[in-house]
Amino acid sequence: QVQLVESGGGSVQTGGSLRLSCQASGSIGGLNYMAWHRRAPGESREFIASVRSDGKIHYEDVVKGRFTISTDSAKNIFYLQMDQLKPVDTAVYYCQAEDTEGVSWGQGTQVTVFS
């Protein structure tokens, strides 16, 4: 089962940008599904964006037009580019992937947006 490690979180001012990375332990070419989720303080985990092995991409409405999911198969990394960040985007962000062996989650990375 693939192992995932996120990086790229931090603190940024409203309107700023961050890029989160999710490093996979193996080839992302073997992954059927890759996604990003987040959990804000006191809230349940929320789906953000996904990309399937057929290239189909889906975004949750609250981030559509501001966040972009992408992959780099040479580096076995998938990304979440976050632009026009708002304080409501403050959360722990998790990457998720699925392959034939099951579902894997990263450990999470904190994103804080201050006004």
Topology, pairings included?
Elements: E1 4-7, E2 10-13, E3 18-24, E4 33-39, E5 46-52, E6 57-59, E7 67-72, E8 77-82, E9 91-99, E10 102-105, E11 109-114
Parallel strand pairs: 2-11
Antiparallel strand pairs: 1-3, 3-8, 4-5, 4-9, 5-6, 7-8, 9-10, 9-11
Content-based structural category: mainly beta
* Average pLDDT rating: 96
Shape: globular
Helicity, in percent? Answer: under 10%
Question: What value does the Rg take, in angstroms?
Answer: 13 Å
Care to describe what's here?
- This protein has strands at 4-7, 10-13, 18-24, 33-39, 46-52, 57-59, 67-72, 77-82, 91-99, 102-105, 109-114.
- It has 115 residues and is an all-beta fold.
- Helices cover 0% and strands 55% of the residues.
- The chain is globular and about 40 Å long.
- The N and C termini lie far apart (40 Å).
- It contains no helices and 11 strands.
- The strands form 2 sheets. Strands 2, 4, 5, 6, 9, 10 and 11 form a 7-stranded mixed sheet that branches. Strands 1-3-8-7 form a 4-stranded antiparallel sheet, with no helix packed on it.
- A hairpin with a 4-residue loop joins strand 5 (46-52) and strand 6.
